[in-house]
Amino acid sequence: METIGPVARRNATGPIRRLLVDREAARRGSRRRIWVYLAPLGLFALAGLGLLAGVDLSDTRNLPEIVIVILAVGSVLPVAVTFRWPIWAWRLALVMMFLGVMNAPPKEAWPWNLVQILGFLFVLGRLAVTQSTVVTVWAIGLSLIPILLFARDANAWGAVLLLVAVAALGDILSRRRRTRELLAEQEELTELERARRAVLEERARIAREMHDVVAHHMSMIAVRAETAPYRLTGLPEPAREELAVIAVAARAALSDMRRLLGALRSEDGTAPTAPQPGLAEVPALVETARAAGLDVTFEWPDLGDVPETVGLAAYRILQEALANAARHAPDGPVTVAGRGFADRLELEVRNKRTGADVGPGGGHGLIGMRERAELLGGELTAGPDRFDFVVAARLPFGEKLQ
User: Fold this and answer.
1) Full DSSP string of 305-369
2) pLDDT of res. 344
3) Most buried pick, 311, 339, 370, 386, via CB within 10 A?
4) How do residues 135-146 score in pLDDT, each as one tens digit?
């Protein structure tokens, strides 16, 4: 309970502190083109009103000229300030309400000049438009003090009603503005939610298509490869081993497919799956490529610890590069090399050009590899040099290699 008291006091005194003490940030001015022309006209109008206030004070007050200038400027300055700093403008106008009664003739019902009265009403209305209702109520209460002190013989209660009416009108306009902003924000959130639902529906449709078409065919491949030794008699042992490898690869592809389908169907884009592969799984990836018939030379020193995102990107890039080499140059030797630095990981997959078509085909493999590198702020190049086809990737990261 001891910790609630200070918080409650701060909440109760927050509006009055904001009105009288807190520093006010400048409000952004309107960007409408018309204000470029209206602003100079407004300043000229205020200058004219200030001169009128000065003439009136010279005729009715026995004051030094410098004091008359200060009172005249103080009558219009809050109006000029209120567009950027409405609270500061009200503070200045309130101070001027106390100074503006200096040497006022006793026969005057209102000890302030007309320009100052109209300016104060404008400032109070502007404050009500831009601030909360509680701040406006405090401003009205404090504004009544000079009226009740210096205009008791005049229609003080009429002035009170006028202040309340101006502030209430400004508060109504403020509430309408905030309501429009909330409606616009709600409409924007609704549009974002519609877009999100559309993305989820499209992902669900893609997941259904992948499940009904691709997963079905992969399952059939795995089943046929597993049952071939029992359906076909007289298969040699190398053929049985090759079919077993195909069945294992098909089952692994099905597992990856299920993880992908789970990610597509989940609303937050994640799925409860096993950890993604990284640098630790690269040797097993190379062994799989060798088992498939590729002549792979593996140059992989101790690269130390790298972020998981970099390890996953490196694994997927090497996976696609080896698949391209097996597809387009199955008889040529392949070299896989990795180099670790303090701020980056560099990969290179080089395969001999044994035919006319040794580069990536027209699919999305190369695009996917390049996108993975660019997401990490790196780069990937793929193309032939004099003798080889080379895939080179640079994957930067901030963590230093151990």
Assistant:
1) ---HHHHHHHHHHHHHHHHHHHHH-TTSEEEEEEEE-SSEEEEEEEEE--SS--S--SSSHHHHH
2) 86
3) 311
4) 888 888 888 888
Residue 27 CA to residue 174 CA, distance in Å, equals 15
How do residues 363-392 score in pLDDT, each as one tens digit?
Answer: 557 777 888 888 888 999 988 887 788 999
Average the pLDDT over 209-236 and give the result. 74
Task: Measure the CA–CA gap between 57 and 70, rounded to whole angstroms.
Answer: 11
Distance, CA of 374 to CA of 313 (rounded, Å)? 10
| Number of Cα atoms under 13 Å in the Cβ half of residue 83 | 11
Give the list of residues 6+ apart from residue 255 with CB closer than 8 angstroms, or none.
none
- Distance between CA atoms of 336 and 27, rounded to whole angstroms? 60
Residues paired with 393 in a beta bridge: 347, 380
Domain ranges across the chain: 12-154, 279-396
**CATH superfamily, with its number, for domain 279-396:** Histidine kinase-like ATPase, C-terminal domain (3.30.565.10)
Q: C-alpha angle 249/250/252, rounded to 5°? A: 65
In the chain, the amino acid numbered 196 is R
> For 182, how many CA atoms within 13 A lie in the half-sphere containing its CB?
6
- Pair 169, 122: CB distance under 8 Å: no
Angle at CA of residue 365, ends 360 and 370, nearest 5°: 100
Tell me the H-state helices in 64-212.
65-81, 86-99, 114-130, 133-150, 156-209
Amino acid at 288: T
pTM, to two decimals: 0.45
Q: Over the range 64-75, which residues count as b (16 or more CB within 10 Å of their CB) and which as e? A: eeeebebbbbbb
Residue 361: the pLDDT is 47
CA triplet 137, 176, 87: central angle to 5 degrees?
40
